[in-house]
Amino acid sequence: MAETADFESLVTRYYEALYQFAFSLTRNEAEACDLTQQTFCVWAAKGHQLRDASKVKTWLFTTLHREFLGARRRQTRFPHVELEHAGADLPAVSPDVGGGLDAAQALQALAQLEDLYQAPVALFYLQDCSYNEIAEILGVPLGTVKSRLTRGLGRLHQLLIGRTTGARSKPTNL
Hints:
The mean pLDDT is 82. This protein folds into 2 domains: 78 residues, Rna Polymerase Sigma Factor, Chain: A, CATH 1.10.1740; 75 residues, Arc Repressor Mutant, subunit A (Orthogonal Bundle). The chain has 7 helices and no strands. 68% of the residues lie in helices and 0% in strands. The protein is mostly helical.
């Protein structure tokens, strides 16, 4: 019974943050739900192996990110697209609404970042993770996290500047 209560409290505590991170990666509600659920399934199977209980949050975010990358690899290797659903995958072009920047535009620009930069930026700004937590979650050195955040923010800035001026310029590689 105690294990069930611990699992439920863990889900209650981290579900929303994990879902938000999954949604920032997948940009799809159904996929974000599946990814979050898969993370908790992995926790149910392997969570007992975690030695330091203070690292639960990092473990969950790392697992979610690895599941996302694994799914992305499978999708790249074995793409599945039905013709009637191909139109939904195309980006929607919305008219400029007063030229101001809102949260939806910022999230849409974040969704356009390369995966390499998107995860660190999302973890830092949407999930309030520290540099060290991001490094552990993504399995990269601290310097790499800082570099990816800087470059990701630069590209995000370029996307947002292009959006507010109405110009559709492609960001340059750094």
